[in-house]
Amino acid sequence: EPEVTQTPSHQVTQMGQEVILRCVPISNHLYFYWYRQILGQKVEFLVSFYNNEISEKSEIFDDQFSVERPDGSNFTLKIRSTKLEDSAMYFCASQAGLNEKLFFGSGTQLSVL
Amino acid sequence: AQTVTQSQPEMSVQEAETVTLSCTYDTSESDYYLFWYKQPPSRQMILVIRQEAYKQQNATENRFSVNFQKAAKSFSLKISDSQLGDAAMYFCAYRSAFRNNDMRFGAGTRLTVKP
Question: Which residues of B touch A (CB under 8 A)?
Fold first, then answer.
């Protein structure tokens, strides 16, 4: 089965630093998402991306966050100035079409010290 | 706003037995999708089963089946012949058919399988 690939699997950073989390969605997919899960809590929607623009974002996705699809394969989440509370597992997901199956990556564990 | 509630923080089952995980949701929408995701210790999100609200027939995937009660807004997961590898966190999730971008998850149920 095709896979969504996320790198790195674990990222450690200092508070205030910028981080970029990388995702390679499945090649023929058109819809892309970022979710996060703080340890012990539920998975939360951050942002969705389609046709090279953000289609929806949650209240969590403030000005410190941005997403980009710089080429035909990568989909990145950037946090400009990390805070302690940004520590979480970040999941990328992709989808071939609306109402198709959503495929999740294996996640990047971000630890902000 | 749509909410998803899993009232069982933890459940346990004996190997080879059957267990049912509960999920209720709140929505005013007429068409939507419901999901159960499994999250093992690796924390990867694995789709277990999916139900389309307009389908009356309950979805099944091998040992996994759901009891979808649309009027009651209930969506429980039944795991038959439980295996040690079924031990994980299980999340119920809701997604609107009209607003595809936002999937809402429940708080999860931790399932332990006893040998």
Answer: 33, 37, 42-47, 50, 91, 93, 95, 97, 99-108
